[in-house]
Every structure is written in C-alpha cells, then in structure tokens.
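User:
Note these tokens:
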Amino acid sequence: MKRLLVGIIAVFMLFTICIVNAQEQTPPPVSEPPASPPKPGNTYNPALGLENWQYLYDINGFKPGKYNLIIRVIDSAGNISFGGPFNIIIDPLSDLPIAQINNPLPFMRIGGDLNIVGTCVDDDGVQEVQIRIDNGDWITVKGKEYWSYFLKTNDMPDGVHTIFVRGIDINGLPGSVSSVMFHLDRMKPLHEIGKPDFGKLVSGTFAIEGSVTDANGIKIVLYSIDQGKTWNKLAYNLDKKTNRASFKLQLDSKKFPDGPGVIWFKSEDNVGSTGVAVFLVYVDNTPPEIAITAPDEKMNVNGEFVIAGRAFDAL
C-alpha cells in the first residue's frame, strides 16, 4: 500500500494528524505537541470530519522503517489532546503479492501425478499466479487467490524436485518467489544380481554379488533365507553419485535343504518405498551314490570281464 487510511470517532473537535520517524521521536510533553522533524510529511494535517473522521496519508516519500502516528485534537475551547504514538511499519515489500504452496508439503513423497495447490494475496488484487518446475519455464496456473496446477510426472525422473511460485498483481508487479521441494518416488528400489547366475547349482559356501538402485537413495538393505519370516541387515557400499548400493553376501549352502533355495532381498529408499526381489539357486550337498551290480563280489574272473553298475544323485 502506498497510502494509509486512519479513522476514529470523536465529538465537536478539530483533528490533525502527523507521522513522525520512530527513531527520532521523543516523548511529548503533556500539554505541548511533540516536535516534528523537519522532513516532508512530518507536519500536522487536518483530517476529514469531526465526530467521525478519516485521513488518507500518502507515504510514497517515506523511507522503509518504523514511524509513529500521532493524533492531535483541539476542542472548541482551544484545549489540546494527543493520541498515540501508534507504531506504523512502512515496508515497500508488503505491497508485493505473496504466493504460497500448500500442497505438496516440504520434502513430501510423491508416488505419481501431483495436484499442486496454493494461495496468493495482494492488497491491490491478484492478476495471475505462475509456477516453475526445477529449471523449466514459468507456467500460468488456474486460479488467483486460490490456485492449482495438475502436474503429470510420467516423464520426470525420480528424485528431488523443486516447485517455484510467484504472484503478479493487477499492476503487473511480480512478488517474491517461494518454493517447495518434494521427492518424486514412482519407482521402488531395483535389485540386480550379478553373480552367480539365476538358478545356478551351488554347494558348500557360495557368494551372491549384486546391487540395488533408487533415485532417492538407499536407506537399508536386508536379506532373508526363511521366506521373509526374519530379515538380516546386509552391508553395502553406496555410490552417492549414482545412488547405487553394491553388496556381497556369503552364505553356507548347508543351511538349505538340497533342492531349490530362495534368497529374499528387501531394500528401502530414503522416502519410505520398499522393493523386494528373490533369487534362486539349486543346493546340492549330497554326494552321488554308486552301486556295482557286476561282477558279483564272490565271482572269480580272468582275462577280460565286464564291470557294470549304477550311479544316483538327487539333482
């Protein structure tokens, strides 16, 4: 606002009004008006009206800061009274439109498309509200004092994004830019096993080498060998540039029965999304069985003879 409207109710009196810089103001005597600094506007001016009065004060010539509003009243007998001082803060930035984002909240997890909503206020009136996503162009949204924009996130990468907003008043004056950051999390943590091959035959001690990736970072990696009944923490090395966590898991195949063995992996990213993967190996810790069927152990042989038998293995 470039003008200040003040008003009060009184009876049969003459009102004058003055604004004085608060830093230069000294307490006025009881019976004398305060001394006004010799600056433009620091003089008493007659208000409009008596019993009900008002005064429209032009503050264009004032520097930003705190000022005192002082009211002087003179009755018909010449008696003088003073009202105030009342603190007035002159702030040119208060004339700018103020736009805010109500949804999403700061660092909120967003798992799909997003309806951005907010408000904008200005004493002169709001002409339009504009938003910008990351380093994109400014977009005029739907609404003014209450506005919204539906953001499709199909082509946006997972991770941290920033919404910027600004309001423009009816005089074309843009306000300050405010912003909110949010986590786009459309994809769950993705697991990848490098060694051994899926379904490989193993025995004794074997190692599983793999990695898990998520644009929002990795918070924890777990594994289970009992179909997810219990989970164990798995150490990993995180590449912060790629948000890729590499791990190596040593297992004793003797803890598995012979046959298909399933290892479960579960990872959680920094915004709470959980990804689960399973890996299959075939465990074989039982040696093959061998049986000789011919010749009979009591049979005598010479020259050439035939040895026959059979071998058996569960896998």
